[in-house]
Amino acid sequence: MSLVSLIKDVAPDDRPTVGLFDSGIGGFGTLRAMLRARTPSWGRILYLADLRNFPYGPRPADEVRRLALAGVELLAELGADLVAVACNTASASGVRAGQVEAPVPIHDIIRPGARHAASVARSTGATRVLVLGTEGTVRSGAWEDALREAGYGHEVAGWACPFLANMIEQGRNGPVTRRAVLEATRGLAAVGGGPAVGRVSGAGSVPGAGAAAGSERPPDVVILGCTHYSLIAPVVAEVLATTVLGRPVRLVDPSEALARDLEAGLGRMRASGEGAGGFTGEQPVEVVFLTTGRKEHLEGRARALLPGAAGGAAHRLVLDRVLEVTLPKGPSGP
Ligand code: DGL
User: Fold this and answer.
1) Which residue did the predictor score with more confidence, 300 or 173?
2) For residue 294, how far is its CA from the centre of ligand 1 (angstroms)?
């Protein structure tokens, strides 16, 4: 049986289908937001985790771009009407609308996330924004660029947290996760000789280089610029507030903004007569899981982290048939 028929078999393809791409489980934040939205925009979600190539953070940008684009192609082949690139590192590598040729529209997480963060900064008067992300994301300066595009004109610092996504992907809990967050962010307190974050350019803020001291005050807004961090947002907030920065900060999780952006994108497609129709929103949303790695890992993490994994009326997580796939070979394939 072909993969397309296998997927049709578990979830009918007569509904608007969103492909959701991440290097691992990080995209669960966006998935949760999509399931919470209870919108008739999507009837079927194909979640693809490129676990074979995880982590993306330390990889060169052109390699990440090739892998993520191959993931987008696979999702399109399997029936996605559009694809959400939930992974910040992939989005930062250039896998976003207007930057790459793709068979279906792409929605990256950084642009809607930056629009949301800019509006939070505007409404709270924030003038210091800190972006926590992987090495690749911070090095790219993509968040800084997107924040400028969104009209935010004040300080932005990037801070890379190597290995943090790995800990979260593995599902380490409690004190281990807290220690990992502390390790990853501890250096922030040393910048400027106290709990301060300076203004840095993306290129200067690779791990080890730290952020150049420029301001003596901690950030007002912290962006969770890696999908994995969103999954432990309360721990990040607690560690920053009590230990690293010494005061509460406003955390911005871009997952919700991506879910809203997708809904708008599907709405536009519907209005122009593109994409699948026929979904009333009364049937449960079907979520099919695919991975380039081991299916047991994705299944286990989904059961632990997703609402309604044990069954629910509004959506059906197809966890008894997680599919192992390979990325297509080709110009953008591995
Ligand atoms: N999920 C990825 C992101 O949002 C990070 C994990 C990785 O290094 O692959 O950047």
Assistant:
1) 300
2) 18
User: In CATH terms, are 3-109+255-324 and 111-251 the same topology?
Assistant: yes
**pLDDT at position 29:** 95
C-alpha 272 to ligand 1 mean position (Å): 34
How does pLDDT run across 31-79, given as a tens digit for each residue? Answer: 999 988 877 778 899 999 999 999 999 999 999 999 999 999 999 999 9
Whole-angstrom distance, CA of residue 27 vs CA of residue 226: 10
Please name which of 6, 33, 24, 12 lies closest in space to residue 276, comparing C-alpha atoms.
Answer: 12
Asked whether the whole model's pTM tops 0.85, one would answer yes
User: Three-state DSSP class for 292?
Assistant: coil
- Whether the CB-CB separation of 48 and 290 falls below 8 Å is answered with yes
Residue type, 246: G
Is 230 near ligand 1, meaning CB less than 6 Å away? no
Reply yes or no on whether 161 is catalytic.
no
Q: What is the pLDDT of residues 271-282, one digit of tens each?
A: 887 765 556 667
Domain 111-251, CATH class in plain words = alpha beta
The pair of structure tokens assigned to 286 is: 């079907």
Token pair belonging to 259: 């879910």
CATH architecture type of domain 3-109+255-324 = 3-Layer(aba) Sandwich (3.40)
The domain locations on the chain are: 3-109+255-324, 111-251
